[in-house]
Design goal:
- There is one protein chain.
- By secondary structure, this protein is an alpha+beta fold.
- It has helices at 2-24, 63-68, 70-73, 92-117, 125-128, 243-253; strands at 76-87, 143-147, 158-161, 183-193, 199-211, 217-220, 231-232, 240-241.
- The chain contains six helices and eight strands, in the order H-H-H-E-H-H-E-E-E-E-E-E-E-H.
- It is globular.
- The N and C termini lie far apart (126 Å).
Length: 259
């Protein structure tokens, strides 16, 4: 029994001695922090669509700012500073087709009036309808596009609708003359639908005033709104009459001022 105990007591210290260097010694190569590995990756894409300040120092909104705060400005008059991208022009063939059709309808109307004077019975709607039919697609209502940069794509631009094509002082035709790529200021109502039939889920402008960078008015008023609705109501500013309403007001005041 004594011999067995002696061997046992010698073996235990030996086992501990063999284990101690492993436990107490430094753990070389285990858990040592490696130097960082440098990886050259392409720059992260910039998903920020902002291309202009939300509001310019002069007070006008950008298209970006207008859309960002859509719920705040929807169905209100706003002033937007942006670059002209394109003015819509009806294709020449389409315009000619419509002009010819209108001339034909006008001729038929004069002929019918002449027959009425001669005692002929008036034609009913069914008989008059063929004179107004034709194979040409009507031209779109006047409109143009703005962008926060001169290179903004049309499908990202802001549509401005219902601007007038006449001079309010003379009543004569007055096409809009403006240069694509230049910056302008447009004032009008920010809406989803225009009176003339346009629609845009991210908003459009129902036109009331169009000015160049110097403040010169290139177009004013609206081609569809009645005279008593031809005014601008910007928040924090007095109401401003435009178009026919402005002309009538100036005539009433005896000013007769022209653009």
């Amino acid at each position: 029994m004594k011999r067995v105990r002696t061997v046992y007591h010698h073996m235990v210290p030996l086992g501990l001695a063999l284990l101690m260097p492993l436990a107490a010694g430094p753990a070389r190569g285990q858990g040592t922090e490696l130097p960082p590995i440098k990886v050259d990756l392409p720059p992260q894409p910039n998903f920020n669509i902002q291309t202009a300040p939300e509001k310019y120092p002069t007070g006008e909104m950008s298209i970006y700012g207008l859309r960002k705060h859509m719920s705040q400005y929807l169905d209100k008059d706003v002033q937007v500073k942006a670059y002209l991208l394109e003015i819509y022009e009806c294709p020449a063939e389409q315009r000619k087709c419509n002009d010819d059709l209108a001339a034909k309808a006008k001729k038929e109307k004069r002929k019918e009036a002449k027959e009425l004077k001669g005692g002929a019975p008036a034609k009913g709607p069914a008989a008059a309808a063929p004179a107004m039919t034709g194979g040409c697609r009507p031209c779109d209502q006047p409109h143009f596009f703005l962008g926060d940069t001169p290179t903004t794509k049309l499908d990202h631009g802001l549509l401005v609708a219902d601007y007038p094509l006449k001079d309010w002082n003379t009543g004569k035709a007055k096409p809009l003359v403006a240069k694509a790529g230049d910056q302008y200021v447009v004032t009008g109502t920010f809406a989803i639908n225009s009176i003339g039939g346009f629609a845009a889920s991210d908003g459009l402008i129902i036109h009331k005033k169009f000015q160049d960078a110097s403040g010169k008015i290139l177009a004013e008023g609206n081609a569809v709104l009645p005279p008593d609705a031809q005014d601008i109501k910007l928040e924090g500013r007095p109401a401003e009459k435009v178009g026919g309403a402005r002309i009538d007001a100036e005539k009433a005041d005896g000013k007769g001022k022209k653009l």
